[in-house]
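User: I'll paste a sequence; please echo it back and then give the predicted structure.

Assistant: Echoing your sequence first, then the prediction.
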Amino acid sequence: VVTNNTVLQVLELSKDPRSTEAHFAAMPEHDIVSFATIVKALMRADRLDRAADYFERMLASNIQPDPQFVAGILHLLSLRPHSDAAQRLLDLLLRSDCNTGLKLVNDTLAHIDGLEAKERYFTLMQSIGVAPDLVTISMK
């Protein structure tokens, strides 16, 4: 898995989402790194629907996102206008771990650098009605 993930990450950096997706499909197994890489590659290529498809597949494989994964998705979403695909990705994030959803929101803040980025994250969370009071407390 490690070797395949390294190749996948190099392909993602080359900004070639088709090659990245082809390599992902050829991999015999996937982990959080593989899924995070393919989702990020597709989001950067403005293929949010495909990114959401892979995120759903990740959750169906019982692989839960970690705060770094969530922070990466939220950062990329905060740079794009709202769309149905962006809303779908946010909905998947919120459903990803129903027992610790609020904890995940707060843990994610710890992985976002800079006040401007935290404010974008806060605005994004408020726009979908996610624990704005809890997020406000975490930003202080």
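The chain has nine helices and no strands. Confidence is low (pLDDT under 50) at residues 132-140.
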